[in-house]
Write a structure and sequence with these properties.
- There is one protein chain.
- The chain is mainly β.
- Helices cover 11% and strands 28% of the residues.
- It is built from six helices and 22 strands.
- It has a six-stranded antiparallel beta sheet with strand order 17-22-18-19-20-21.
- Helix 3 crosses helix 4.
- The N and C termini lie far apart (40 Å).
- The relative contact order is 0.16.
């Protein structure tokens, strides 16, 4: 059944790109728009400037829920991405446009893995207040501001423990490891038609949540996939149960470290290409924690810590005087003698890098925060 306004749907492809408008897409974007999108080929085909085109808002992973708000006869649907909080946009998730072919009816996949939009958190919720950094007086509306999608400044305290998009939520897994939702723990995996079958869905990325459909057979695990009546099979070694407890921040940093040298893509949030706030969101998602999508909202949903008290796994936020927060990085080492290091998706180098903060970056540092 085609997506209908007012109804929910789920992503049926490994990575679906959320666009500002159907009219904003470029000829180079065709591989990302195909019924079976080839995100890796799309990124490989872009030059340095095309990688930061502001037509992309974010990306959604296989099984991620959306609420459909509008449909068009040309195959485009306007949705709200319920698993990517964006409080400043006044919605219950991140709004934008997807291809209808990238969505399926939730009922087509059976029970869905726990997403913050589907059920309340089973672990401690995130909380925080608006940071005391520069006021959000930059350009309004969604869209990146230097290095990663963001909009206007932080918009107030983030409610905790509601389990809804718009708040950070705690670990999603409960019960035994065999029963809990699974998450992909490798950069890419392929789902097969059977334990020894051909690949039926390739390019499934790190952080994708999957619902188990039975016990493992010969090192492969059956999982439910939106838009498919029968389970597909994933290599058991590529999956881990979502944790029942909150992870240590250094474990999250270790996940982000695995993405070092990944290409920077404006609005990207996969192991094919990523931006600064996408890196933070995806690394925490791997452990069942949902942070807001954009850097300024991430600052509002986390707790400020004094500079020089930050620890590896904390977050650095950056803003120019009188402007909104435009960049985020993950603290990668304890500060020493005023020198600081971070792992981040860098707009300038177009790569995920770990480095000491240069002078120009230090000049825009407005605070350290803890998730």
């Amino acid at each position: 059944m085609a997506p209908q306004p007012g109804r929910r749907a789920v992503v049926r492809v490994p990575v679906a790109t959320l666009w500002t408008a159907p009219e904003a897409v470029r000829p180079i974007d065709c591989p990302a728009l195909a019924g079976s999108p080839d995100v890796a080929a799309w990124i490989a085909g872009m030059d340095r400037d095309q990688l930061v085109g502001d037509c992309v808002l974010t990306q959604l992973l296989l099984g991620e829920p959306v609420r459909v708000t509008e449909t068009r006869p040309d195959g485009w649907v306007r949705v709200v991405a319920l698993g990517q909080p964006a409080a400043k946009l006044g919605a219950d998730g991140y709004p934008g446009w997807l291809r209808a072919a990238h969505l399926a009816n939730p009922a087509d996949a059976g029970p869905s893995p726990t997403h913050p939009a589907d059920a309340g958190p089973a672990g401690p919720a995130l909380s925080g207040t608006v940071p005391a950094g520069p006021a959000g007086t930059g350009p309004s509306g969604p869209g990146p501001s230097g290095s990663g999608p963001s909009g206007s400044g932080p918009s107030g305290p983030v409610p905790a423990g509601t389990g809804s998009a718009g708040s950070g939520t705690g670990p999603a897994g409960t019960g035994s490891a065999a029963d809990r939702p699974l998450t992909v723990d490798v950069a890419h995996t392929a789902l097969r038609a059977g334990p020894d079958g051909d690949a039926a869905l390739t390019g499934v990325v790190l952080g994708t949540r999957l619902t188990p459909a039975g016990p493992a057979v010969d090192g492969t695990r059956p999982v439910r996939v939106p838009g498919r009546a029968d389970p597909l099979w994933a290599p058991e070694d590529d999956l881990v149960p979502l944790p029942a407890e909150r992870p240590e921040a250094e474990k999250v940093l270790a996940v982000a470290e695995r993405l070092r040298d990944l290409v920077y893509v404006w609005g990207g949030m996969s192991t094919d290409g990523i931006d600064c706030s996408g890196l933070v969101h995806l690394a925490w998602r791997r452990y069942g924690i949902t942070l807001p999508r954009d850097a300024d909202d991430q600052a509002a949903a986390t707790s400020r810590v004094p500079l020089d008290a930050e620890r590896p796994g904390d977050l650095y936020f950056f803003a120019r005087p009188g402007r909104r927060i435009h960049h985020v990085g993950i603290v990668s080492a304890e500060p020493r003698g005023g020198r600081r290091r971070m792992l981040h998706a860098c707009y300038l180098t177009r790569r995920v890098v770990e480095e000491e903060l240069p002078a120009d970056r230090t000049a825009t540092l407005v605070g350290a925060h803890r998730v």
